[in-house]
Design brief:
By secondary structure, the chain is an all-alpha fold. It is 85% helix and 0% strand. The chain has two domains: 195 residues, Growth Hormone, Chain: A, CATH 1.20.1250; 188 residues, Up-down Bundle (Growth Hormone, Chain: A). The chain has 16 helices and no strands. The chain starts with a helix and ends in a 7-residue tail after the last helix.
Length: 407
C-alpha cells in the first residue's frame, strides 16, 4: 500500500476538495459549540436548546430521500456547492445579529431549520462524491484519508469553537464557520460534474426516482446487510454516547474531566484506526470483520457498565474505536461506493442514512429509561442491538463472504 501523501499528490482535485471539506467540518463542529452556548446564554433553557436541535433534525429526516434523488439528478458537486453557500449565508446573517446583540430565539430556530434542510441534501451528496474524484482501486485509501481528516476536524473543531466563543462571543465562531463553508463551496468546484439526469424534473418524476432507489435497496441483499449493521449501530451507539457515557463518567468522579477522558479515548482510537487504514489498506474479508466487530462492540459495551476506573473505560473505547474505524468508517463507504451503480449512489446513500435519523432519538429515549434504573443494565441494553445483529449475520453466508472493495 502506497503512502497517502502520494495519493494526495497524484489527484489534486481530491486534495483540494478534501482540504475544503476538512475546514468546513471543523467549522461545523465549532458552530455546534457556539450554537449551544448562544441558546443557553440567551434563554437559560435546556428545553430551548432541545427545540433548536429538533428544528435541525426534523427537516433533515423528512427531506433526506429527496436529497438523494436530487444528488443523482444534478451530481453531488452541484448539490454540495449550493448547500455550502446556503449555510454560509445563514451563518453570516446570524453572526451579524449576534455581534449587534439583536439575535432572538426564533431566528436560531430558522437557522437550525435551514442547516437541517441543507444537511438533508448535503449528506447523500458527500457520500457520493469520492468515486468522481478517485478511480475504484484507490477508493479504500481515499476513504481512509477522508476519515482521518474528519476525525481530526471533529477533535479540533469543538476546541476551536470553545476558544473563539470564549474570546469573541458566539458570533465570532459562527462567522468563522461562514468563512469555512464559503471556502469549501469554492473547493467543491473541483468536483467533476458529470451529466445532468434525464427526465422532466417534475414532482412525479422525482418521486419515481426516489422509488427506484428504495426498490434497489429492497432487492439488494448486500444493501439490506448494510442497513442491518447501520440500524444496530445507531440503536447501540446513539444512546450510549448521548446519555450512557456521561452517566458512566459521573459514577467515576464529579469532575467533567472523567467524561473528557472517555470521549478522548474513543476519538484517539478512531483517529488511529483511520490513519492505520490509510497506510496499510483494508482487509479483504470485510464480511467477517464486520461480524466480528459487532460482537466485540457488544461485549465491550457490556464491560463498560462494569468498569470502576475511567482509564479502563477509555482503553476499552479506544480499542473499539480502532476496530470501528477499520470495519465501518472506512470499509463501509468503500463497500457502498463499489457495489452501488453510480447513477443510484445518492439515493442509496440517503436510504442508508435514514436509520441514523430515525433510530437515534429512539435509542436515546429507550436507553434513558433503562439507565434511570441501573447503569449496568443500561449498558447491557446498549450492547443488545449489535450482539443480535452480529449473531444474525454470522449465520448469513452472503454476509460472511463480503469483501470491502466489492471484488
Amino acid at each position: 500500500m502506497r503512502s497517502p501523501f502520494i495519493l494526495l499528490k497524484q489527484y489534486p482535485n481530491f486534495r483540494r476538495v478534501l482540504f475544503g471539506e476538512g475546514l468546513a467540518m471543523a467549522g461545523e463542529a465549532a458552530f455546534s459549540i457556539a450554537l449551544a452556548w448562544l441558546v443557553i446564554s440567551e434563554t437559560g433553557s435546556i428545553v430551548a436548546l432541545a427545540g433548536v436541535l429538533l428544528a435541525q433534525a426534523i427537516p433533515r429526516g423528512v427531506l433526506l430521500l429527496l436529497g438523494g434523488a436530487l444528488t443523482d439528478r444534478f451530481s453531488p458537486g452541484r448539490v454540495m456547492l449550493v448547500c455550502h453557500l446556503v449555510r454560509a449565508g445563514a451563518m453570516a446573517l446570524v453572526s451579524t445579529l449576534s455581534f449587534t446583540g439583536t439575535v432572538q430565539l426564533w431566528q436560531l430556530y430558522v437557522l437550525s431549520a435551514i442547516t437541517g434542510t441543507a444537511s438533508a441534501f448535503f449528506a447523500p451528496a458527500s457520500e457520493a462524491v469520492l468515486p468522481r474524484l478517485l478511480p475504484g482501486k484507490d477508493l479504500p485509501q481515499g476513504n481512509a484519508v477522508q476519515g482521518a481528516v474528519a476525525q481530526a476536524a471533529f477533535i479540533a473543531g469543538p476546541m476551536v469553537g470553545g476558544v473563539l466563543t470564549g474570546w469573541g462571543g458566539a458570533g465570532l465562531a459562527i462567522a468563522v464557520n461562514a468563512l469555512t463553508l464559503t471556502f469549501a463551496a469554492f473547493t467543491s468546484l473541483n468536483i467533476p460534474r458529470g451529466p445532468i439526469g434525464s427526465g422532466s424534473g417534475s414532482a412525479t418524476e422525482v418521486i419515481r426516482e426516489i422509488g427506484l432507489g428504495l426498490q434497489h435497496a429492497a432487492r439488494s441483499h448486500e444493501t439490506r446487510i448494510v442497513l442491518l449493521v447501520i440500524s444496530a449501530a445507531t440503536l447501540s451507539y446513539s444512546g450510549l454516547f448521548a446519555i450512557g457515557l456521561p452517566m458512566l463518567a459521573t459514577s467515576f468522579s464529579d469532575s467533567p474531566i472523567a467524561l473528557g477522558i472517555l470521549v478522548s479515548g474513543w476519538g484517539a482510537g478512531q483517529l488511529l484506526g483511520t490513519v492505520a487504514a490509510a497506510v496499510t489498506g483494508l482487509p479483504q474479508r470485510w464480511g467477517l470483520l464486520i461480524i466480528s466487530m459487532t460482537l466485540v462492540e457488544g461485549i465491550a459495551f457490556a464491560l463498560l457498565g462494569l468498569t470502576t476506573e475511567p482509564w479502563v473505560a477509555a482503553s476499552i473505547l479506544a480499542l473499539v474505536g480502532v476496530g470501528v474505524a477499520y470495519s465501518t468508517d472506512v470499509a463501509l463507504p468503500t463497500f457502498i461506493q463499489t457495489r452501488t451503480p453510480s447513477h443510484l449512489l445518492g439515493r442509496v446513500s440517503s436510504v442508508l442514512e435514514l436509520p441514523r435519523v430515525i433510530l437515534e432519538p429512539v435509542s436515546i429515549a429507550l436507553l434513558g429509561l433503562v439507565l434511570a434504573g441501573s447503569l449496568q443494565w443500561g449498558f447491557l441494553a446498549a450492547a443488545a442491538p449489535v450482539l443480535i445483529a452480529g449473531a444474525l449475520l454470522s449465520f448469513d453466508k452472503k454476509a460472511r463472504t463480503l469483501t470491502a472493495e466489492g471484488a
